[in-house]
Design brief:
The chain has 469 residues and is an alpha/beta fold. Helix content is 47%, strand content 15%. The protein has a 4-stranded parallel β-sheet, with helices on both faces. Strands 5-6-7-8 form a 4-stranded antiparallel β-sheet.
């Protein structure tokens, strides 16, 4: 069965047809790195990593791009508050982001482009839009004109007049129309800046993704993905920029994951229910967090609570126990004649799993298949005699689904003692340099690997967590 994807652009499920046979070009909007990420940021990282994994399971070669916005008003403000340089703040929180998502089982992207490393491409892109009449410069700022792009509003399914009614010109802006948005911002005194044909400044938010997607994936890509909150204005503006520049469809499929609620309330700083990913990882097994995130279809909102996480842990433990029981029984199993019905059952369940994932990556239904598979495995283990190859077929079925979901039965990337000592030395150096944020990142990274640190007057000691205690 072929894969279908719910396309935000058409608001329908569509048959996936790649630009090139057996390959997928996929762009996912990454974080603005001015602070640690919250669990709302972790959801798209997990969701679209799983989408990538399933494409690879189906035999596709996936080029996966996840960008970092490493210069922005928020980063500049954070640097000023800390009396630090913008690159130092950005680098620190890129490291923190990568540590968080690695702990959550997210594979390394093919490319992680940064705005500051793509500046020439961004400036060239903006110049092209000016030359084609879609953008204009005023006193060092450059703006895009949505009214010049006939299809503006097609992703958010709003008319340009509806959008115009809610738009305002902020104090200090010199744009011609309230809908116009910044491609280039003139630098303020003392701000980090780059030379451009319009004077010193830096890019607006939206233009960076258009330039980076084109640089690493081409003028037209298969899938553009991100959180639901990015559909408008960010992704809407990306479409306008890219299609105005290239006269080509920017992305064939637009995917957006739903929001996260905390104890049935929308997560927000004002409500005090704002949960950082690093804190969640410190309190819970990262694999349980990932398993929980995938227990709900990616387009639906998900409710986050300690009670639901505990339930997810119990469910994942049952699956792991079933696998361990199979492994234990395999030692005493024989190469005997067996009924073909067990292989038929396992094959049918595998096909049901693929049917679930082919249907817009329905991980909730895929997990239901996993439960069915472990239930049947436990039923098989009740037989007086078991066959070695049937048990292996059950194990392969379980690990296949878990691999696609990004869940490992064993800690494949457990840190070696030498790796731990190297990280401890790096942490000690960071503490000596009063880079306490970097020291905290390393501590959290080790904690995610079940390494417990104890700072003593004689130095830092470590031990592995005892889960049986």
């Amino acid at each position: 069965m072929a894969i279908t994807i719910y396309n935000t652009l058409t608001q329908e499920k569509e048959l996936f047809k790649p630009i090139e046979t057996d390959s997928v070009r996929m762009y996912v909007c990454g974080p603005t790195v001015y602070n640690y990420i919250h669990i709302g940021n972790a959801r798209p990282a997990i969701v679209f990593d799983t989408v990538r994994r399933y494409f690879e399971y189906k035999g596709y070669d996936v080029t996966y791009v996840l960008n970092f916005t490493d210069v922005d008003d928020k980063i500049i403000n954070a640097a000023n508050e800390r009396n630090e340089q913008v690159p130092d703040v950005a680098n620190r929180f890129i490291d923190a982001y990568l540590a968080d998502i690695e702990a959550l089982g997210v594979k390394q992207a093919t490319y992680n482009p940064r705005v500051t490393e793509t500046m020439d491409d961004i400036i060239h892109f903006i110049s092209g839009l000016i030359d084609k009449g879609y953008a204009y410069e005023v006193d060092g700022d450059v703006y895009f004109k949505p009214r010049s792009f006939a299809d503006y509003g097609k992703l958010s399914h709003q008319s340009i007049d509806e959008l115009r009614s809610g738009a305002r010109i902020q104090v200090g802006e010199k744009k011609e129309n309230p809908l116009d948005f910044a491609l280039w911002k003139q630098a303020k005194d003392g701000e980090i800046a780059w030379d451009s044909p319009w004077g010193q400044g830096r890019p607006g938010w939206h233009i960076e993704c258009s330039a980076m997607a084109e640089k690493y994936l081409g003028e037209t890509i298969d899938i553009h993905a991100g959180g639901q909150d990015l559909a408008f204005p960010h992704h809407e503006n990306e479409i306008a920029q890219s299609e105005a520049m290239n006269d080509e469809t920017f992305a064939h499929y637009w995917m957006h994951n739903g929001y996260i609620n905390i104890d049935n309330e929308k997560m927000s700083k004002s409500l005090g229910n704002f949960v950082l990913t690093k804190d969640m990882i410190a309190q819970h097994d990262p694999q349980v967090i990932r398993f929980f995130m995938l227990s709900v279809h990616y387009r639906n909102p998900i409710n986050f609570s300690d009670e639901l996480l505990h339930s997810a842990k119990n469910s994942l433990d049952r699956i792991k126990n079933a696998y361990d029981n199979l492994e234990h029984r395999k030692q005493s199993s024989m190469n005997l004649e067996h009924s073909a019905e067990w292989f038929t059952l396992i094959n049918d369940l595998n096909q049901t799993f693929e049917k679930a994932m082919d249907d817009d990556f329905n991980t909730a239904n895929a997990i239901a298949v996993l439960f069915d598979l472990t239930k049947e495995a436990n039923r098989y283990l009740e037989e007086k005699h078991t066959a070695h190859d049937v048990i292996e077929a059950f194990q392969t079925g379980i690990t296949t689904i878990l691999d696609v979901l990004g869940i490992q039965l064993e800690e494949e990337n457990q840190l070696l003692d030498a790796d731990i000592e190297a990280l401890l030395n790096e942490r000690s150096e960071a503490r000596r340099n009063r880079d306490f944020t970097r020291a905290d990142v390393i501590r959290d990274q080790l904690k995610a690997k079940d390494i417990i640190l104890e700072d003593t007057p004689q130095g830092t000691r470590w031990k592995r967590a005892d889960h049986d205690a």
